[in-house]
Amino acid sequence: VTVAAIVPAAGRGERLGPGQPKALRTLDGVPMLVYAVQALARARLVELVVVAAPLTGVAEVEALLASHDIGAPVLVVAGGEHRQDSVARALEALPPEVDVVLVHDAARPLAPSELVDAVASAVLAGHGAVVPGLAMTDTVKRVALSNTGPNTGPDDDEQAPEQVLETVPRSDLRCIQTPQGFDRAVLTKAHAAAEDTATDDAGLVERLGLPVVVVAGSADAFKITRPIDLLIAEAVLRERRGSGAR
Ligand code: C5P
Asked: How far is CA 8 from CA 51, 91, 227, 230, in A?
């Protein structure tokens, strides 16, 4: 059985503010894509990593990854307009011998290699679709949607107060991360059947009515979305270096 990992890295990352495509933003001087690819390549079970780069950045991403010690073969392809298109392009580029596929966001650079192996193991144990998840810590409330868009936080003074409709019980809710792992045939079928975009790959599998299981996620696998996430990631890296971990 051959396990490959796909990294969609073609997004612009506008919520982080102006600048480079998100995957190329740096943490302590190293682009987050490099950390994400290393985390996958250093997992025991992963044999190949396929990166979907921004359309105009394929050669740049190839050169970047060639200049770092990665630990497994890497293939770079051009991504697409949406994350889902980027994953689909990378899927098409997989060699025939691959039968387990992990999909991991470049925007989750600090996911531990142990998490990568745990997801891959669950697929190898017979689960067709596996996602890492964490219990929610905040109280969750449903609000009446206004047409002014979501409240983006305390810095957003444009946003009018929203009416609370209810508090949602959270014990059976999970925040889902990547890497997500799939039997290749299941993921290929799910992407082929996709009519519109889902927010994750497992969502496409659910639409086919096929089972998806959740395994324990990792706090370190958080997604870098807003500027504060960059600060948190750099603090995690400092702590890892201090404790001698890679
Ligand atoms: O923007 P968001 O945080 O949802 O992006 C998740 C991941 O999908 C990122 O790693 C981003 O680079 C990738 N992506 C992509 N192609 C797109 C849009 C996003 O590969 N067209």
From this structure: 6, 11, 20, 19
Tell me if 111 CB under 6 Å of ligand 1.
Answer: no
Tens of pLDDT, residues 165-191:
999 999 999 999 999 999 999 999 999
pLDDT tens digits along 90-147: 999 999 999 999 999 999 999 999 999 999 999 999 999 999 999 999 999 999 997 6
| 8 CA: nearest ligand 1 atom | 20
d(C-alpha 100, C-alpha 111), whole Å: 19
179 lines ligand 1 (CB under 6 A): no
Q: Does any ligand 1 atom lie closer than 6 A to the CB of residue 23? A: yes
